[in-house]
Each structure stands twice: as C-alpha cells, then as structure tokens.
Amino acid sequence: ESYDMGGHDTYMHKEISEQADAVDRVLRGRIDDRFSTVHLGGLNLDAREARGVRRIKILGCGTSYHAGLIGAGLIEELARIPADAEPASEFRYRNPVVDPDTLYVAVSQSGETYDVLAAVQELKRKGARVLGVVNVVGSAIAREADGGMYVHAGPEVCVVSTKCFTNTVVAFALLALHLGRIRDLSVADGKRIIDGLRKLPEQIGRILETEAEIKKLAEVYAGAQSMMFIGRVRGYPVALEASLKLKEISYIHAEAYPASELKHGPLALIEPALPTVAIVPDDDLLEKNRAALEEIKARSGRILAIAHREQERADHTIVVPKNENELDPILMGIPLQLFAYHTALAMGRDIDKPRNLAKSVTVE
Ligand code: AGP
C-alpha cells in the first residue's frame, strides 16, 4: 500500500476499500493453529505475568478510543479479565489511581496524539506497565510503551480513520484471544475465534461489494438535520464510531446512545425528522434490539438497521455477513463508514480534509 490514490477520488474511499487486505495483514504470521492461539511476541509479557493481570485499562482518543471500547468488550468476553476504555484526554487530568496489577493499553493510529502520549508518560512515571496498540511504526507512543503490537493498517492519509479502526479492533481480538488462551478460554473456543478471524477479509470484501446500495441509502438520509445511532453492548461502540464518522465528514449532528437507554430520555427526540441507525446483530440480544425498533416505530421514527437479516420494523436494512458473536462488531461498522462517506459526498463536503480537524492532534 502506498500514498498513491490508486484510482480513487478520495483517500477515505481508498482506505475503506483496502480493509480486506489490511485485516489480512494484521492476522498474518500471528495465528498458531496447533494451540488455537496467537503469538504476539512484542507484548513483552510472559504467561506468568499475563496471569497476574487483574484489570485492563485502555486509553485512546476519538476513533481509537472507540476501538478500545470494543477491545475492552473482547477482553472481558474472551479472557474474562475486567476491562474498560476511557478517553486518554480525560484520564490524564483526573489524577487516576494507578494500580500495579492493572495492565494499561494505549491505542493510537498515529502514535503521536499528545493526550495519549501524556497519559502514557504519567503512567510510566507511576510505575505502571503500558502496552501500545499503534499503527505508525516507531512513533512516540510505540517507543514509550513497554511493549505492544502494531496494527499494520498501512498508511492512513484521510483525516478520518477507517481502516485503522477496523485493524485496531482485530488487533484487540488477537490480544483477547492470546490472553484468553493463557487463562480459561478453551481450545475449542480458541479455534472458533480463529476460524472467525480468518473469515473476516472475505466477508469485508462482500460488504464492500454492496457499496452501490449503501450509496442509495445515504442519499435518502442525507437531508436529515440530525441522526440517532443506537446499539446494545457489543453494538454500542459501533454506534458511537458510526456517529463520529458521520459528524466528522458530513457535519450532520449525530448522537449515539445505548439502545437500552432510549427509554430513559432520548426517546423524547424521536419523530419522523430524526432518523435512527440501529445496530441489530443476530445474537443473544436480538429480541431486545427488536423491541427498541418497535419503540421507535411507535413514535413514527425512520429506521435504518444494520443487521444479519432484514428487520421488519426498519424502513431499510443493510444486511452484513454473520461471524462469531464476539467478532460481529468488526463487520457491522464497515457499511456505516460507506454510509458516512456517501452522505458527505451527496452534501458536497471536503471528505479528506473536514473543517476544523487535523489528522493527528500533537498539541494540548
Ligand atoms: C478519527 O476519525 C478522528 N479524526 C480522531 O478521532 C482520531 O481518531 C483521534 O484524534 C486519535 O488519533 P490517533 O488514533 O492517531 O491517536
């Protein structure tokens, strides 16, 4: 991969289109079929140390923070280690309690984001062990961290992050699998996740082939003043990231909420002029998510569902291929990158250089 536009009109489109290859790269050379695990030599964390980790705290900003939220979910599900993610920009200003049994993970595409770097430096000063999940090789955060993994997304030029988000989430799936197999994840479950990971590039390819359909839907919704994005548990960070993408490049106001929180307030906003994008995976929460669609429909809200099969209550559904439940968020975010892209295109926005934003925020 290079800095050449390769026939695309924008870097964003090029980078979205590169995701099957990018995911293939983050997996390459890391899977160990014999033991149903993955090798992550750069972590500098042996099995005994990994077993001693009591908690994992992930720090990042913007899209990287959202990838960290999905990562925390994967770590809890696969490794059963309590994990959460927090914006590094908040963490560094609140005099956090630094616990020696907590493993800290700093996430950054550029590896140069000042808020993340400052958080890492503060943690190191307090004796914490910090891993980096970083795209740019040799960047400041990669150098400061005690170990970590590169996400191998290749160069990302567009100000908004797409392929690096996807690769970062896959990198977290690898980390979760690795930690899980050191702890209580069975050989069978390890194999199940590996099989799922191997399917991703082909499934991403299939999602990208539906671009013409997504473009039509984006043109339908492009007139909205504001949009709501909802998801539950695994789907909530997908909703957060999709709403950020739409805001950044189309300048349409967008809110992301856990679907479970609708009834606690935001339902008051629902009316025909406020469309909702709903993440509706075929998992243990399917019926709960369908109930949320009913609630929205009862208030005459328009719904675009991202799901594994057509959703009756939705006005439109983008159907994505099914993977293992834990890995579904990786695929469900991709059509929404194209949705944001085509919405912004229909509105004539400068997609690669949205107003007021820089690719990497290296100052306070
Ligand atoms: C992504 O679309 C954003 N422009 C932004 O939120 C970005 O993810 C954030 O500034 C963090 O950057 P980093 O990953 O390079 O640290």
Automatic annotation (TrEMBL):
It catalyses: D-fructose 6-phosphate + L-glutamine = D-glucosamine 6-phosphate + L-glutamate. It is found in: Cytoplasm. It is an enzyme of class 2 (transferase). GO terms for molecular function: carbohydrate derivative binding; glutamine-fructose-6-phosphate transaminase (isomerizing) activity. Keywords: Aminotransferase, Cytoplasm, Glutamine amidotransferase, Repeat, Transferase. Its main location: cytoplasm. GO terms for cellular component: cytosol. Homodimer. Catalyzes the first step in hexosamine metabolism, converting fructose-6P into glucosamine-6P using glutamine as a nitrogen source. This is Glutamine--fructose-6-phosphate aminotransferase [isomerizing]. The gene is glmS.
